[in-house]
Design brief:
heterodimer; A: about 170 residues; alpha+beta; Alpha-Beta Plaits; two-stranded antiparallel ribbon; elongated; B: about 300 residues; 6 helices
Chain lengths: ~170, ~300
């Protein structure tokens, strides 16, 4: 090492200058972070997060438990059990068969979106909602209560952008 | 023995062999698809017309080509006959047209249907079908009928192949169901919704190429590609006892007869084996059944047996 390298001062000053630059930028310019809970960054239209099981206009579940999402799933995260629709349940399920149990293991899921491409009934979509963290593994197995959207108009989840993207991908 | 050439491949076959069976003896892609012909049922074939082939040379004695496409399951081979099957465009066009005809009244409810994944009409449509329909009229629909405690008849899905009628005629002592009406009004029916009670009636489920006749004990229980098909046998006083048990975990979800690579059953099984023996201890499991690796049934199964090519 040369003399100037051995005293380290130019390197230290160089590092301090980088820190100062960022400090001044934050002080007078635009910050590179956002104030998260109040302010949220816009997601890319192709973002794939927490799945939703859609209902149709009349509030009936679209999913008919055909099993194509589960067979398309490369992580084998999806399991389901089907049941036959009984008389009087026509307002709940669109087809004569429905998913009595539908579970996605969010720890296994790799959010690739193959399930929505495989779905023949436009029932499953990935949304821009983040999957919350938890302490217990069991809580990451999302059942129908966490996946199916609500019947009320305000509880519906808008997937129109994603729908367009999936249709184009086909 | 007559020598026949199909798509450039020659074979010598027995006198009286049909073109379809000669093609099956050669094997490979030139084998015409068949929706109604069933080698173990006498008199079957000639209904669906998916097995059409072009006979470009009638025989050595009369080398003129046959004027129209021929149903290969009904046409006998002649010495020196030359046949174009998968290589000829007129044949593939005709098969596509036949597929379109078969799908005219079909409800396309594959996501619900228990036959999905092992349905011959699905395979045929996948290979020859178009993605849209030109049919603008109302499709004919029927109410679902329970034929006895074990079999569900969903007439809307039926393609009128007659296989189940031949099965009922040839396997059971009395004729219990048949086709009534003609043309567009034709339908499979039992006499005034009488139940089919013969001990071998369950075999109509296996011979049905579509989901018109399905197993009521397996209705909506699972999808075929979630299950592991295993060869199994049991000591049965009425039938051969050789079957395939479809397992998930340690449970048997359904029992079917063993089908060959053309989906045909040679050892028909009885209703006791099929519907009532669903306990693992009833069967001696031999091992995983060999399933074509391109079949959806072998998807996501990693055990060696189920990914062997048949």
């Amino acid at each position: 090492m040369t003399f100037w390298e051995r005293i380290y001062l130019p390197a230290i000053l160089g590092g301090l200058w980088t820190t100062l630059k960022h400090f001044l930028k934050t002080l007078f310019g635009k910050a590179s972070t956002v104030r998260y809970p109040d302010e949220k960054r816009e997601f890319a239209p192709v973002y794939r997060g927490w799945h939703v099981l859609k209902r149709d206009d009349q509030g009936r579940e679209n999913c008919t438990a055909c099993g194509l999402c589960a067979v398309a799933c490369p992580a084998e995260a999806i399991t389901m059990e089907a049941a036959e629709r009984q008389k009087g349940e026509e307002n709940l399920y669109r087809e004569e068969k429905y998913a009595a149990v539908y579970e996605i293991n969010m720890l296994r899921c790799i959010f690739c979106g193959l399930c929505e491409e495989a779905c023949p009934k436009e029932a499953i979509f990935l949304t821009d909602r983040l999957v919350p963290s938890d302490y217990v593994r069991q809580n990451f197995i999302f059942g129908k209560e966490l996946l199916v959207e609500g019947v009320e108009p305000e509880k519906r989840i808008d997937v129109s952008k994603r729908q367009k993207h999936v249709t184009e991908a086909r | 023995m007559p020598k026949v050439t199909i798509d450039g491949k020659s074979i010598e076959v027995e006198e009286g062999t049909t073109i379809l069976n000669a093609a099956r003896q050669i094997g490979g892609e030139l084998v015409p698809p068949a929706m109604c012909y069933y080698s173990t049922l006498k008199g079957s074939g000639g209904k669906c017309r998916t097995c059409l082939v072009k006979v470009t040379k009638g025989s050595d004695r009369d080398p003129r080509p046959m004027p129209k496409l021929m149903a290969s399951c009904q046409t006998m081979v002649m010495d020196g006959m030359e046949v174009a099957s998968a290589t000829d465009e007129s044949v593939t066009n005709a098969r596509a047209a036949v597929t379109e005809f078969l799908l005219i009244n079909h409800p396309l409810d594959c996501p619900i249907c228990d036959q999905a994944g092992e349905c011959h009409l699905q395979d045929l449509a996948f290979e020859h079908g178009k993605s849209n329909t030109r049919f603008e009229f109302e499709r004919r629909t029927f109410e679902k009928i329970d034929i006895g405690p074990y079999i569900k008849l969903h007439m809307t899905r039926c393609i009128m192949c007659w296989r189940c009628v031949y099965t009922a005629q040839q396997l059971t002592p009395e004729r219990v169901h048949g086709i009534i009406g003609r043309g567009d009004h034709a339908e499979i029916s039992t006499y005034i919704e009488k139940s089919v009670e013969s001990e071998f009636s369950g075999n109509v489920i296996d011979v049905c190429p579509v989901g018109a006749l399905t197993d009521r004990t397996f209705r909506f229980k699972s999808r075929v590609w979630f299950l592991n098909p295993m060869d199994a046998h049991r000591d049965c006083p009425t039938c051969s006892g050789k079957a395939v048990v479809w397992m998930y975990g340690g449970d048997i979800y359904r029992v079917t007869a063993r089908k060959d690579k053309y989906g045909e059953v040679h050892d028909f099984i009885c209703n006791t084996c099929r519907f009532e023996k669903k306990d693992k201890n009833d069967w001696i499991v031999e091992g995983p059944r060999a399933i074509d690796q391109h079949s959806v049934i072998s998807q996501n199964h990693y055990d060696q047996g189920s990914i062997t090519v048949v």
